[in-house]
Amino acid sequence: MIRKWDEAQLREALRLYLVMGSPNCNGADPYAVLEAAIYGGVTMFQLREKGPGALQGPERLALGSRLRRLCAQRGIPFIVNDDERLALELEADGIHIGQEDEAAAAVRKRLPQMIVGVSAHDLGEAQSALSDGADYLGVGPQYATRTKLDAREVQGPAGIALLRAGGIALPLVGIGGIDASNASHVIRAGADGVAVVSAIAAASSPREAAAELRERIVNL
Ligand code: 3NM
C-alpha cells in the first residue's frame, strides 16, 4: 500500500498539530482561524467537531470540505476525529480515534491508506495501539485543560518520557493544556510535537499564537 505520508514526513507534520472544530473558535470562522494558523506555522490539522454547538449533518460536511481543501492547498495532512464515514467522504489523510472509540485494529484494516492516530494514556494503551497498527499517538492530558470535559487525570510530560523509556518509538504528540509557555517541556520529554486546541483556536491572533508556539518548539 502506497501511503502519501511516510513516517519521517509524519513526524515532521506532527510538530505543531492544530486540533479544532467550530465550538473552539470563540465565534470566529474556523476557516479563517485555520488559514491564519497555517500562516503562523501549523503543520497538521484535525477536525474535531465536538461538544455543545457542534455542527451536524450537511453543515458539518460543508465545513469539513472547506477545511479539507485548505489543508490540501497548503500541503498539510487533514485528519478527522473519530468519524470514519466523514473521513471517507472528505477524503481525509487520516483519522484519529480515542480509547472509547472503535478498536484501532478494525479501523486500520478498513482504512489501509489513511494515517491512523490513537489517543493513549499509558504504556499498555500505547503498546496496544502499536500492535493495532497506529501511525502515531496522542498522549494526554499533559496539563489541565478545559477543552475536553472528560479528559483523564493530568499526567504531565513525564508520561511521555515513560512511554519512550518503555520502548515506544512511534511518532507521538502531547495534548492537553499546551501553550507557548510549556510546549518545550513536552518536546524535551520525547514528543515529536504538540497538539493544541485553545492556545491557537481561541487566541485573539491564531497566526501569532501559532508562530510563538512554533518558535518555542523549533528552537530547542
Ligand atoms: N484530548 P487544549 S486533551 C482533544 O488528553 C483533547 O487525550 C486530550 O485542548 C487528551 O489544547 C484534549 O485547549 C483537549 O487544552 C486539548
UniProtKB/TrEMBL annotation:
Belongs to the thiamine-phosphate synthase family. Pathway: Cofactor biosynthesis; thiamine diphosphate biosynthesis; thiamine phosphate from 4-amino-2-methyl-5-diphosphomethylpyrimidine and 4-methyl-5-(2-phosphoethyl)-thiazole: step 1/1. The gene is thiE. One of its GO terms (biological process) is thiamine biosynthetic process. Condenses 4-methyl-5-(beta-hydroxyethyl)thiazole monophosphate (THZ-P) and 2-methyl-4-amino-5-hydroxymethyl pyrimidine pyrophosphate (HMP-PP) to form thiamine monophosphate (TMP). Gene3D superfamilies: Aldolase class I. PANTHER family: THIAMINE-PHOSPHATE PYROPHOSPHORYLASE (PTHR20857), THIAMINE-PHOSPHATE SYNTHASE (PTHR20857:SF15). Its EC number is 2.5.1.3. Mg(2+) binds at residues 82, 101. 4-amino-2-methyl-5-(diphosphooxymethyl)pyrimidine binds at residues 46-50, 81, 119, 148. The keyword DNA damage does not apply. It catalyses: 2-(2-carboxy-4-methylthiazol-5-yl)ethyl phosphate + 4-amino-2-methyl-5-(diphosphooxymethyl)pyrimidine + 2 H(+) = thiamine phosphate + CO2 + diphosphate; 2-[(2R,5Z)-2-carboxy-4-methylthiazol-5(2H)-ylidene]ethyl phosphate + 4-amino-2-methyl-5-(diphosphooxymethyl)pyrimidine + 2 H(+) = thiamine phosphate + CO2 + diphosphate; 4-methyl-5-(2-phosphooxyethyl)-thiazole + 4-amino-2-methyl-5-(diphosphooxymethyl)pyrimidine + H(+) = thiamine phosphate + diphosphate. Binds 1 Mg(2+) ion per subunit. One of its GO terms (molecular function) is magnesium ion binding. Its cofactor is Mg(2+). One of its GO terms (cellular component) is cytoplasm. Pfam families: TMP-TENI (PF02581). Residues 16-200 form the Thiamine phosphate synthase/TenI domain. This is Thiamine-phosphate synthase. 2-[(2R,5Z)-2-carboxy-4-methylthiazol-5(2H)-ylidene]ethyl phosphate binds at residues 145-147, 177, 197-198. Keywords: Magnesium, Metal-binding, Thiamine biosynthesis, Transferase. InterPro entries: Aldolase_TIM, ThiamineP_synth_sf, ThiamineP_synth_TenI, TMP_synthase.
